[in-house]
C-alpha cells in the first residue's frame, strides 16, 4: 500500500476563508478582534513562529499586538504585562509563546492568562472544561489533528487510537478530545515509560505521534492500512524530521506529514479560537 497524504495547507486555507467571513461579520457589529502574543527572550525559532501568527492574523482581518520581554524578565514584570492584557479591551485573546526561560514557572504563568482570553486553551480552567465536556477554547494542536482526521473522513467511532506523548499541549488533551462521546475513540496514551511501544502502535487504527523523537515509529511498528498523524518535529542537519520514519508510507493508508500536515492547521486553529472568543465576548473595537 502507498499512503495518501493529509495536507494541512489546503484545509487551513478553507478554515481561514470561513474565518474571514466571520471577522467581517464581527466588524459590522463594531468589533475588531485582536490576537496578542507574548514572547520572552529572543529565541529565533519562537520569533519566527510568532511572526507567522501575526501574518496569519492579517490574512483573515484580525488585528494583532506583540509584547516582547527580555529573557531575564522579572516574574513580577511578566505578571504585570499579562494582567494588562487581561484588562485591555483591544486584545480579544492572547498566547504566551512556549517554552519560557528556565527561571519562569510555566504553569504559574499560564494560570495568569484570563480564561476568557486564553487563545491557546491551556489555562487550567479551560483544560478543566475539556475534561468536563463544556464549551472552551481547545488546545490548537489536538484540535488541528481532529480537523485533519475529520476532513479525510477517518472513522473514529470505536477506533483504537494510540497517542504517543503525554504533554499538556498535545498528548494529554488529544486523549481527552478523542474520548469525548462525539468522537468515541478508544485511546491508549503512550509515553517514555511505556514498556513496549510497538505492541501499542501495531494494534492501532490511528497513531498520533507527538514524541519529538525523529523517526521513532517505523513501518515495522504500524498496521497495514493504518492512519498516521505526525505532530513531533525535530530540526536536523537534513531539515525538519517527524516522529514517523518515511518507511511507514509503504504500509499506512493515510499519513499527515511533517512538515505540511498538522503544523499549518495548528496555526489556523489559533485564529479560530480568537474569532470564537470574540463571538462569545464581543467588545467594541
Ligand atoms: N503558546 C504556544 N502555543 C503554541 O501553539 C506553540 C507554542 N507556544 N510554542 C511552540 C509550539 C510549536 N507550534 C507549531 C505550530 C505550527 C508549526 C508549523 O506550522 N509547522 C510547519 C513547518 C514550519 C517550519 O518550517 O518550521 C509544518 O509543520 O508544516 C510548527 C510548530 C506551536 N506551538
UniProtKB/TrEMBL annotation:
Stretch forming the signal peptide: none
An example molecular function term from Gene Ontology annotations: methylenetetrahydrofolate dehydrogenase (NADP+) activity
GO CC list: cytosol
Ligand binding (NADP(+)): 165-167, 233
Protein name: Bifunctional protein FolD
Entry's Gene Ontology BP terms: L-histidine biosynthetic process; methionine biosynthetic process; purine nucleotide biosynthetic process; tetrahydrofolate interconversion
Gene: folD
Coiled-coil residue windows: none
Amino acid at each position: 500500500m502507498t499512503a495518501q497524504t493529509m495536507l494541512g495547507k489546503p484545509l487551513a486555507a478553507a478554515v481561514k476563508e470561513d474565518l474571514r467571513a466571520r471577522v467581517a461579520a464581527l466588524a459590522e457589529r463594531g468589533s475588531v478582534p485582536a490576537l496578542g502574543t507574548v514572547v520572552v527572550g529572543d529565541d529565533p525559532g519562537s520569533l519566527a513562529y510568532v511572526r507567522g501568527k501575526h501574518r496569519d492574523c492579517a490574512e483573515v482581518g484580525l488585528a494583532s499586538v506583540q509584547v516582547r520581554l527580555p529573557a531575564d524578565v522579572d516574574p513580577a514584570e511578566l505578571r504585570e504585562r499579562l494582567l494588562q492584557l487581561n484588562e485591555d479591551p483591544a486584545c480579544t485573546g492572547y498566547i504566551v509563546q512556549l517554552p519560557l526561560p528556565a527561571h519562569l514557572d510555566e504553569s504559574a504563568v499560564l494560570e495568569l492568562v484570563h480564561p476568557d482570553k486564553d487563545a491557546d486553551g491551556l489555562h487550567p480552567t479551560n483544560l478543566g472544561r475539556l475534561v468536563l465536556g463544556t464549551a472552551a477554547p481547545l488546545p490548537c494542536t489536538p484540535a488541528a489533528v481532529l480537523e485533519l482526521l475529520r476532513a479525510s473522513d477517518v472513522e473514529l467511532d470505536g477506533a483504537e487510537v494510540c497517542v504517543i506523548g503525554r504533554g499538556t499541549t498535545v498528548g494529554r488533551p488529544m486523549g481527552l478530545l478523542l474520548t469525548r462521546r462525539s468522537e468515541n475513540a478508544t485511546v491508549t496514551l503512550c509515553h517514555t515509560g511505556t514498556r513496549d511501544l510497538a505492541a501499542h502502535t501495531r494494534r492501532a487504527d490511528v497513531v498520533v505521534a507527538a514524541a519529538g523523537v525523529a523517526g521513532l515509529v517505523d513501518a515495522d511498528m504500524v498496521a497495514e492500512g493504518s492512519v498516521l498523524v505526525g505532530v513531533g518535529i525535530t530540526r536536523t542537519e537534513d531539515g525538519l524530521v517527524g516522529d514517523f520514519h518515511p518507511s511507514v508510507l509503504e504500509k499506512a493508508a493515510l499519513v499527515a506529514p511533517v512538515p505540511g500536515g498538522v503544523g499549518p492547521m495548528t496555526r489556523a486553529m489559533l485564529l479560530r479560537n480568537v474569532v470564537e472568543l470574540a463571538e462569545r465576548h464581543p467588545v467594541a473595537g
